[in-house]
């Protein structure tokens, strides 16, 4: 199962990620914030936009690492507004979502979500998203 995720920090791209098998039963609804790998060892926060488009043959998607909430932080009406604003401004949804006050308030209220715990780092390391310390 694939999901499109908008990154909330540069490059603000909308990328396709795979849902990990161990979280396949989780509801991956649009508006849900997630932690995703980007590059070598970098973790980014993104927002699920919806179903991912099929990948070309021979390409594999990297897995979403974990959800940051149990339910989507942004309701579907807000996600439609973000989509419309992105179309009008000719940008990806990432910069629009990065400036969304509801997301900024959630980050200020829960500093724990901004810093990866040791358990989260270990999961990322086992998935090959973080280099192991030597």
Secondary structure layout plus pairing:
Layout: E1 2-7, E2 14-18, E3 33-38, E4 42-51, E5 66-67, H1 76-89, H2 93-98, H3 101-109, H4 118-126
Antiparallel strand pairs: 1-2, 1-4, 3-4, 3-5
Key words describing this protein structure:
134 residues; alpha+beta; 5-stranded antiparallel β-sheet
Short description:
This protein is α+β, with helices and mostly antiparallel strands and 134 residues long. The protein has four helices and five strands. The longest helix has 14 residues, at 76-89.
* Outline type: globular
Q: Work out the helicity level.
A: 25-40%
For the termini, the CA-CA separation is 34 Å
Number of strands: 5
Overall radius of gyration: 15 Å
- Taking pLDDT < 50 over at least 5 consecutive residues as the criterion, the unreliable ranges are none
- Biggest sheet architecture: 5 strands, antiparallel
Strand-residue fraction? 15-25%
> Would you tell me the overall average pLDDT?
81
Structural class by secondary-structure content:
alpha+beta
Widest sheet: strand order?
2-1-4-3-5
Number of helices: 4
Q: What sequence of helices (H) and strands (E) makes up the elements? A: EEEEEHHHH
